[in-house]
Amino acid sequence: MFRISKGFSKGFVSLVAIIFLCTSILSQSAKVTAASADEDQVFTRIENNQDIASQIYQQVDESGALEQGLIQMHKEFSKKLSYDMEKKHILKVSSFDSEFYFVYYPLLGGENSSNYIITINSDGEVLETQLILGLKNKNGQVHSIIQINGVTKIDAQVSETGKIISGYKYLPDGSKIDLAPKVGIQSFWSCMNNCLASQGVAAWAITVLGILCAAGCAATAGLACYACLAAADIGAGAAVGYCLAQCD
To answer: SS3 for 219?
Structure first.
């Protein structure tokens, strides 16, 4: 069984926010670039044909996180779920002398934009896992779930257009927030919603990620907002920088 480094979840968003003090996040230059780009880039896409990619995938395999994640998905949601290995990809985050890797495994059997994400450091230590899963119901709604380190943070029924029908956001103290009344969307997030949808991001994913990132994306494109969205690699990364520039 893999072990997750303690203290990562509380500090990582702050770390990424600090990273973005050194780069423009509200322009086209905020887009994720290929690994051959300028070494000063904070977010770097690692191509799967690079040696470092093979090393990272091997470290993930040896950690047991993939296997454990799939076992939990089968137990809690559907045995039809599996990893789309052909579309797996890696995003590198650099800050001073520290490096982290977001390793993304799109999910077969789930709605478009479903992903299982494993964050590891340069030593191959698993820091965090994140599940973003959408499962369509017979009535056309999408059962939308976000789990972090195997713990459910959001569980909601979302319409195909992204409207919340019912559901809850679960807080660290064990309490929960009823999401059904949360139908109002502020102008910034409304713009982001429309822009990300135009980039091909699924409506249900935009909705639940908007709830998860609400603290940072409440009214404007702040650093915490970009960090939260980029951490989920929504729209394969590039859509985030573009849409933040459009909606600022």
So the answer is: coil
Question: Given this model, what pLDDT does residue 20 score?
Answer: 32
- Domain borders along the chain are 8-182
Alpha-carbon distance 86 to 89, whole Å?
Answer: 9
Quote the pLDDT of residue 75.
Answer: 97
Of the pLDDT bands very low, low, confident and very high (cuts 50, 70, 90), residue 238 is: low
Residue 54 is encoded by which pair of tokens?
A: 């093979």
How much is the mean pLDDT over the chain? 74
- CA atoms lying within 13 Å on the CB side of residue 68: 18
Distance CA 127, CA 222 (A): 24
User: What number of other Cβ atoms are within 10 A of residue 17's Cβ?
Assistant: 18
Structure tokens at 1: 């069984």
pLDDT of residue 102: 86
Q: What pairing do the DSSP bridges indicate for beta strands 43-46 and 33-34?
A: parallel
Identify any residues that bridge with 136 across adjacent strands, giving them in sequence order.
142
> What residues does 101 pair with on adjacent strands?
92, 120
Rounded to whole angstroms, the Cα distance separating 164 from 183 reads 7
Tell which wins on pLDDT, 41 or 196.
196
